[in-house]
Amino acid sequence: MCFVTAEKERRVKANAREYNEKFSYANNHIKTSKYNVFTFLPINLFEQFQRVANAYFVVLLILQLIPEISSLSWFTTIVPLVLVLVITAVKDATDDYFRHKSDRQVNNRQSQVLITGSLQKEKWMNVRVGDIIQLENNQFVAADILLLCSSEPYGLCYIETAELDGETNLKVRQALSVTSDLGDVSKLMDFDGEVICEPPNNKLDKFTGTLHWRDNKYSLDNEKMLLRGCVLRNTEWCFGMVIFAGLQTKLMQNCGRTKFKRTSIDKLMNTLVLWIFAFLICMGVVLAIGNTIWETCVGRKFELFLPWDEFQSSAVFSGFLTFWSYIIILNTVVPISLYVSVEVLRLSHSFFINWDQKMYHNQSDTPAEARTTTLNEELGQVEFIFSDKTGTLTQNIMAFSKCSINGQTYGDVYDEFNQKVEITEKTECVDFSFNPLCDKAFKFYDCSLVEAVKQQESAAQDFFRLLALCHTVMPEEKSEGNLVYQAQSPDEGALVTAARNFGFIFRARTPETITLCERGRAATYDLLAILDFNNVRKRMSVIVRNPQGQIKLYCKGADTIIFDRLDPSSEDLMYATSEHLSEFAGEGLRTLALAYKDLSKEYYQVWQKKLHYVSTVIENREEQLAALYEEIEQGMKLLGATAIEDKLQEGVQETIACLNLADIKIWVLTGDKLETAMSIGYSCNMLRDDMDEVFVISGLTQLEVQQQLRNAKENILGLRRLSSTADVQKGDVFAEDSVFEETIISEYALVINGHSLAHALEPQLEHTLLDLACLCKTVICCRVTPMQKAQVVELVRRHKMAVTLAVGDGANDVSMIKTAHIGVGISGQEGMQAVLASDYSFAQFRYLQRLLLVHGRWSYFRMCNFLAYFFYKNFAFTLVHFWYGFFCGFSAQTVYDQWFITLFNIVYTSLPVLAMGLFDQDVNDQNSLRYPSLYKPGQQNLLFNKRQFFLCTLQGMVTSFLLFFIPYGAFSVMLKDDGSDFSDQQAFAVTIATTLVIVVSVQIGLDTHYWTAVNHLFMWGSLIVYFAILFAMQSDGLFGIFPSNFPFIGTARNCLSEKSVWLVILLTTVVCILPGLVVSFLRIDLFPTLTDKIRHLQQSRKKQRPQEQNLRRVRRTSSRRSAYAFSHQQGYGELITSGKNMRVSTLSSSRSLERIAQSSSWIENILKRKNEVSAEPAESHKADRLK
């Protein structure tokens, strides 16, 4: 017997499959499906029988197969049971089929693998650990591989990690220098290095290992790894060695196991079925005791007339058999048709989501998709939303929005009255067609900035010259004039693109030079030094020598950092720029300050010698470099500031505000740095300046974190005690306030970073963290790992007993999506891993508002009403047998005809309640979105809970009591028209059955809020079908063919032809319905709920055309300056100056520069186009006046 031990370290040898197979590493075959052909039946049945009701019906079926106790045929149970099991199994099999299809598509992708001296095509699933594979441009990485070499110099390559983290900006990876020249197949075949590294794990940003080759050891880290799910970009080819494959890759390790999710209503139903079963046993015991007493006292006197069966030896045994008979008869209190109907409702609700045109994204041709059919009503009970940031709240697209140059702001548009105009899609953009190398996608709306550059204002030119020089962007020009920038972060790309459009085009770079095209003329700058960005410096500088021989330092960074290093001569400009920065930050824009410094040749030479010396020291090199950078960056002159918009997805602000009004708490869990996360928080209005306080938890040790958490909690609780007497009640629900004004109610926010979160999630601190977080309106967790995201969700799910929803778009969100009760994937241009793991998917975050407040609320409302009515009608139907037992000698005789019992839930009453469950709505979708507070009853579980269950079953019991005793009393004194008595049981049964069908039909008519043609058809149609079947089954013809199966010959004809019977039916219906109607009327009149008020308002406006209330966008007035526009990690300045990322032969741009220089009249082009644009509206205005 062998035991599988956990892998402590991994040893992988290149080109040695036999050696690597000894360790039994996973192959590259992946599996996200739950079942296969052999396991489907047992696993699926096991999951289905986790429903107590299914097991309950199997027990009943077994009892019905015993003839001594069965008073109903076995097919009345087995047919609907098999039906519900088959429907559910087909649905689950269909879901899993698509998972299998997706797996098969991925596993069958082709990859080039080095086998026996040549590259051979292999399916991904046949790739093994230790194989050397070749990737080509735009190909997905097949497994987690160690980069060995590439087509780029020094083994560099570029990758896109959208599948992993949703970010579309490129990242750089570099091979070890000792392997970077293994570009030949023969050299790669001789490569026999061995990698010893960490075991498989889910840490996407960390890798630790060592390469042993030629008696040397080489350190390996994450910068040398290409992870499965990445895409190779702008690199012709690369070779890599497979380290982790298949389910052991970091991508798949983050996917987690596919869990069986069940709704809270499902769990409640399990409890209720147990209650009902206990109640059923109690009724059976009462009736069994009654049978024993009756047989003892009365039954013995009738032994000659009604002899006991041979096996029936005593009255007690008779009572025992009667107990089981009544269990069978009364089992319809929980009919299996309930579960068939529930599955149909859930499937239909899923189709409603799929068909919703208002959740269809036209640009990407992406509809909303319900990838599961079991969680729809849970969408109406969500209390916590956990959202990723990049790609989910934001588009991950940076746009140059505004700037301040020499004390003058640019970017706003003004009308002829000098009033600021809001920029919309219809606002006319600046025409950059005068610039042959402009980026056609770039949009700017303020023509005055082009005018400033056109007039050769030195400040404006220096501003854009700085943006074109001070960066680490790599240009790519594979065809003439077709420039593509590969930026380390989208922020830098946006700034360089802005400079490009305003005439300062970054064309090429080498380790020593940067080539620009300035207003049509080529200019080459000597790159003397890059003072790179890091999280401490919060700025970046370059030192260049311009074509005139002047040495200049250009710097960009966080405004607070730059302002501390300015020359006193820039003080006035600093104050003016500071005001502009505050204005930019108030609009949620990401800001940077720009400055420059003229350096004398002598000063630079002395400083450069110091730099060379410090760069060679071993001890404290970083600190000495920082001090040297600090020295030269003093006394700079301010140029201005930039403002970049990290574009939110459309409707994010309105969606968050609306969900907040619905008492849904939104937590942002992101891998971005703290400043970026807070900037987006302000942009989304999740963070606001009117909040009492924003607590930032950034402790490095557990003690520090504990103290910060406790201080924040005490601060909140202390302030709340002081202000508790000053609470102001909310105004009228119909006030025409905007959503943003309603949400500003002075709150707290919590921001915590990943290091501190790791300590806060320890068992001794997790309760403190959760208590504090729940006291805050907004929670932002930054720099968190995928596992920490899942741990935060699990913490809330475990301790708050609330329904959680996680929404994300990358593989780093998969664990969070699978941990939450409901997982939502954002589909679009990013990766599809989150979508594949999700329960629901759509293209934009804003659709979450409609998914929850409309579809979720309606699904919950419909399901609750459906269940309440179903239990009511079945208690009313079934308990008539209980009352009848006291008058039939407890003989387990049924009141109704057996056909009525069989068809009651399947035919007579199934369709009206199904129509109500499908189409009913208390308010329409516009009002559901307009009044988010309507969502709160679902969160509080008010519409269907144990109390509501008790009330609806009590109503059913009372109805059954009235249904039996009113006709019973009437029949005891009632005579037919010919004077004879109503003495037969069959007429009594038909009367009760007819009354029951009419009563439950009237009741569902009263319970239905929204009538459609389908509702009318099903309700009236069911009544017509009932009478048609009743008269058909009790006709002479069927009795003549099947006399034993249709014993009620002529009963309906004789009974329902009597006026007195119809009077009894009318009386019973009124008495059954009237009390509930009165209670409902008084409740709505005296104690109306918010729903009642809005429904009344909706009905009063029914004749008017509904006008959807638009959410007014309120500008945030903030004094906070948002994050500086830099990458989230250390820059690549050292890489650029080393020349390692430069191609051996770069495309010469001299010809194109000369061609542009020939067209030097670009200023005239601007003037000409500007005059044409300004002349057109003037002429049209004049023409209008002449008309």
TrEMBL record:
GO biological process terms, semicolon-separated: Golgi organization; phospholipid translocation
Subcellular location: Endomembrane system; Membrane
Segments passing through the bilayer: 49-66, 72-90, 272-294, 314-340, 866-887, 899-919, 949-975, 987-1006, 1018-1042, 1062-1084
UniProt membrane topology term: Multi-pass membrane protein
Sequence segments annotated as region (Disordered): 1098-1121
Keyword Transmembrane in annotation: yes
Binding sites annotated in the UniProt record for Mg(2+): 388, 390, 809, 813
Protein name in UniProt: Phospholipid-transporting ATPase
